[in-house]
Design brief:
The protein has three domains: 35 residues; 177 residues, Aspartate Aminotransferase, domain 1; 234 residues, Aspartate Aminotransferase, domain 2 (3-Layer(aba) Sandwich), CATH 3.40.640. The protein has 15 helices and eleven strands. A hairpin with a 2-residue loop joins strand 10 and strand 11.
């Protein structure tokens, strides 16, 4: 018979071990519970975040437009390692407000006149919240039919609204840079009868890409990535208002052919980055048609204006082109990223990018569109949802009214520059970008004027009240006033004009 004392000890030991295991397990359960944000907690913080978002939209003008932090100021406030133990949302959100917000340049301020805008709007933000919640990866029709089919319908809406030929097909890319790369790659494959994708560049090493001296740097980047080479991007001189000269394009192409080169692609700009110059598309298209060269039309920023019927003449000749891109995420109140890309020959695009490993095969292949085959990335965000919200919320009339309003504001600012004795318009206004510089009457030396205008730009941006950027036009340091932020109004332009005059007076 066992000793009762020994039995008691064993029982107590077993109880202690059981209690210890219970504590450990429940401690881990507690940790796991804390790390999984349950719906009650999620709802609490979601409401808190939305309140902050709404306050931000109401008060964005109170922030310095351009972030005033110094290099590494944000970096040095962030820990060197991943936290070993998880932290609560309240702490993280407080750090967001304390550390991150001071390092934000506020693109959504109506006093943002730099670069081109990257607009949002309330319906777009709400749709982005839904997109984030759904977490869709829309690479194929099967992975979310709504993502594919809504995108198809949005492309049809835009095709009709901006005057793209009915037999073209559209898809959403992430940016105009990606769309331009897609065009160069498709032109390359079509020209080589799709051999370069199969066997490489053997026999196809003398391609040429043509654009104006004013077109976007993404063309050079696309040529580099596509294996064409930066040195084979031929930049055609421009006329007095910075448009590509068709006569010089024609002459250059003929010379290149005589020298053994293969003209591959022409990029025409409807709104260059520096000055929104509008290339003469119809004349360029006739040259492309004559020499059987792929013609891509880059309307990344200015393309939004095509929603207004009186501006659709800007793409006269589009039916002779091969592809076209514009970005709703610039001037059409839709969160970045969202780039609308149209092609005349859908099969050429798909044949360039299609690849079908076993793990991507589905029963609907060949029946539906799989947009992973329409560009460089396999993965695709559900971008069409925010576009759908914006188009429906504002309606075509509402969008046209906002765009026209921004153009009228730009006309007002242009008129102020033209009437001033100490400011000068550098090129005629195109749409809603005004390019100007400060020119005191007693100064004519271009180097001194450039230094003066650079100083003026830095002084303006240092105030935090407005934000401008610059370009150079014929070696003249030029200030750019891009008037297209979603909520910009007359009072913002008037305030900017007064500040520009004030700071100009100070530096003189």
């Amino acid at each position: 018979m066992q000793n009762p004392i020994a039995i008691g000890r064993k029982v107590n030991t077993l109880k202690f071990a059981t209690l210890f295991i219970f504590i450990v397990v429940n401690h881990h359960k507690k940790d796991n519970f804390n790390m999984n944000l349950k719906s009650k907690e999620f709802r609490k913080y979601a409401h808190q975040f939305v309140d902050w978002m709404a306050d931000y939209m109401d008060n964005v003008e109170d922030y310095p437009v351009k972030s005033q932090v110094l290099p590494k100021e944000i970096y040095n406030q962030i820990g060197d390692n991943i936290p070993y133990k998880g932290e609560d949302i309240e702490t993280i959100f407080n750090d967001f407000k304390k550390i991150i917000i001071p390092g934000i340049t506020h693109w959504q301020s109506p006093n943002f006149f730099a670069y081109f805008p990257a607009n949002t709007s309330p319906p777009s933000i709400l749709a982005e919240m839904l997109t984030a919640t759904l977490g869709v990866q829309g690479m194929k029709w099967d992975t979310s039919p709504a993502s594919t089919e809504l995108e198809e319908k949005m492309m049809e809406w835009f095709k009709k609204a901006i005057g793209i030929p009915y037999n073209w097909t559209g898809v959403i890319q992430d940016s105009a840079s990606s769309a331009t790369l897609a065009s160069i790659l498709t032109a390359r494959e079509q020209k080589s009868t799709y051999k370069i994708n199969q066997v490489g560049f053997d026999g196809f090493t003398k391609f040429r890409v043509y654009c104006s001296e004013e077109t976007h740097s993404s063309i050079e980047k696309g040529a580099k990535i596509a294996g064409i080479g930066k040195e084979n991007v031929v930049k055609i001189p421009t006329d007095e208002i910075l448009r590509l000269r068709p006569d010089l394009l024609h002459q250059t192409i003929k010379q290149d052919i005589n020298n053994g080169y293969q003209p591959l692609c022409i990029i025409a700009a409807i709104g260059t980055t520096g000055t929104t110059a509008i290339d003469p598309l119809n004349e360029i298209a006739e040259i492309a048609e004559k020499f059987k060269i792929w013609l891509h039309v880059d309307a990344a920023y200015a393309g939004s204006v095509l929603l207004i019927p009186e501006y659709q003449h800007l793409i006269k000749g589009i039916e002779k082109a091969d592809s076209f891109v514009f970005n709703p995420h610039k001037w059409l109140f839709t969160n970045f990223d969202c780039s609308i890309y149209f092609v005349k020959d859908k099969n050429a695009l798909v044949n360039t990018f299609e690849i079908l490993p076993e793990y991507l095969k589905t029963s609907t292949d060949g029946v539906v569109n799989n947009h992973c085959d329409w560009g460089v990335p396999l993965g695709r965000r559900f971008r069409s949802l925010k576009l759908w919200f914006v188009m429906r919320y504002y309606g075509l009339e509402g969008l046209q009214n906002k765009l026209r309003h921004h153009i009228e504001l730009a006309k007002w600012f242009e008129n102020k520059i033209m009437k001033s004795s100490e400011f000068k318009l550098i090129v005629p206004r195109n749409i809603n970008l005004v390019c100007f510089h400060f020119k005191p009457q007693e100064l004519s030396d271009i180097k001194k004027l450039n230094r003066l205008n650079e100083e003026l730009l830095h002084k303006l941006n240092a105030t935090g009240i407005i934000y401008l950027t610059h370009t150079k036009v014929n070696e003249i340091y030029t200030l750019r006033m891009a008037i297209g932020q979603t909520n910009v109004e007359q009072n913002h332009i008037e305030k900017a004009w007064e500040l520009i005059k004030e700071k100009a007076t100070e530096i003189v």
